[in-house]
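User: I'm curious what two different proteins look like when written out as structure tokens. Can you demonstrate?

Assistant: Sure. I'll show them one after the other, since each token string lines up with its own sequence. Here's the first protein:
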Amino acid sequence: MRRLARPLLLAGIAVTVLALSKVHATAHGYDYTGSFRFAWSLAYIALLAAASYGAGLPELPSSRRSATLTAVGSTAAAALSMSVLQLLVGSALLPRFVVFGTPLVLVPFAAVCWSVARRGRSRDGQRDRVVAVVGSEERSNLVRELDAHPERPAVLAWVLAPEEARSDGDHDTPLLDVAQATAATVVVLDRAGLADQSVVDQAAALHEAGVRVRTLSLFYDQWLGKLPVSELERIGLLFDIGELHRAQYGRIKRILDAIGAAVGAVVLLGVVPLVWIGNQLGNRGPLLYRQTRVGKSGRQFEILKFRTMRAAGAGASTAWTGEDDPRITPFGAWLRRSHLDELPQVLNILRGDLSVVGPRPEQPRYVEELDAKIPFYRFRHLVRPGLTGWAQVKYPYGASEGDAFEKLQYEFYYLRHQSLALDMRITGRTLRSVLGRGGR
């Protein structure tokens, strides 16, 4: 049912706008489908859909009250945007009956869709009960990951060390016994478990009984949206990468990047005067911050941002930036919260240094250090780095080598599954993040 909640909301948006438009046309005696208002009603549907998705409807709100308030905010934003557009154009593109009547219908309907999503989440949580045959360190990782933001909800029902899962005879089947006692639906085997024939035999019996069996790597991929640390070196070369192995994907991605960056450049032109004024008042110094980063194929480029820290002198430290770094000025903190500090990077996208979606580029000295410590770290440079990425939407703010190691697991997932669909998914989640919480 959870998967039906979002299509149900989108269908409700479309039906509401089209129905109200048809009612208005009938009441005022004009042909709705033959008028210019039909096309604008489709644009309004798209605007409402984007606003609802960006606000996290119907899945993300934690309560019915939160879902209702979120629906009020998103539909009001869409209605206000359409109203502003009509003022700028100087024409009634859509009747006020449609523009303002639609939110009145959609707010309670969004609450219904939230209820559907909530029931689906509850059932999902009961569906996947995991028994894992892993070591103690991996056990802690699984507990933390499943409690965070898994791609598919699951509960860790039991954990066995590989030696505990081993069978010494026909009547000694610890993995079978635990899986049956916990009503497991998924069994996960790490490398040591796969190397033990008695464990594999028990897993095979469970598989025949309808229990899904996954390697640790595949479980991380499908349920957690990342690749485990222990598997990075083993599978570093064992998958295709979209930009390298699918030429059509790379070309379409570049065209979409250029279109998005061109739109962003128009916004940038309007924002520059405001940021310049803000700098004069509370962030005196250069408007832009420039820093060398490592891009595709190891090529270095100069990334552009609005400066958010006090201007540094020559030879100043380039240490990792902390989340509450004291070098950040009050105006710079606002730029970060609003994410406007990232806007000049549309110029990097137009130049081909960046893509909209991809691994975030790092400074050369950090790349050199991390490449020496992390297996296959250099593989992240096989694709064009991005303004946002899978690691950014999945992992909280990090500024250390340990965080870089953690993020690499998500970046390898992105390399493994790179596609236009995943790029759109990341863009949507980034939009939700920008609208839903402060910057970093």
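Here's a second, unrelated protein for contrast:
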Amino acid sequence: MTTMRELSPDAVTLDERPIARRVGLILLSTDHTTETDFARLVASDGIGVYAARVEYANPTTPKNLLAMRPRLADAVASILPGSDLDAVCFSCSSASAVIGDAAVTEAVQAGKPGVAVVTPALAAARALTALGARRIAMLTPYLAETTRPLADYAEAKGFELAAVTCLGFDDDRVMARISRAALVEAAVASMPDDAEALFISCTALRAVSVVAEIETRIGRPVVTSNQATIWECLQHCDASLDLANAGRLFGHKLAKAA
């Protein structure tokens, strides 16, 4: 029989954390896009990204979005129980506008007390402010009834809406299938001459990878939902914002006044 030797744990050096920084994601159960974007642009040897999913049923309407609020605390509490996180992102633009930043923060912090909470709507407002844009255009894949709360949110934050374009989809799984080329053309078509920047809403859209192309086409800054939350989460982790081809936003720091 092989002799087994058991050492004392005191003989082993422990790091304070397995990974220095930790970001939590609360995702819709139907989300195809956010994890991929965060894995590509946030996760590294120094930053871990940990996700939980909340039950969600299409169609994407304000009523169905609002129904997620009671599920947020349990979702975030399931992410690394007993461990702190540097930030938690609730990755749904339309739901963050419908539920409201204060209510999302309250629900998330019920599961992780004191954690920094990031929502796409507020991250986008902060991003647009950092870029110096006040008169903006907005592009969403949603129905008009789902786009309206986001438009109201932007105006409440002090932005002027030069144009609002919605593509009329009601299923976020289908929104994730909109081709990158189609996103570029829709973005160009939705941008009036007098707008200072374009906000492309929806975490389901595969828009981050074409931000630079859109900016080249329209000659002005572009903010997308996942791009903005990535930008904000990286700053909560004191991480570099040097992301090639992720847009002009990454040359700016967080403006918390928005």
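A detail about the second structure: The mean pLDDT is 95.
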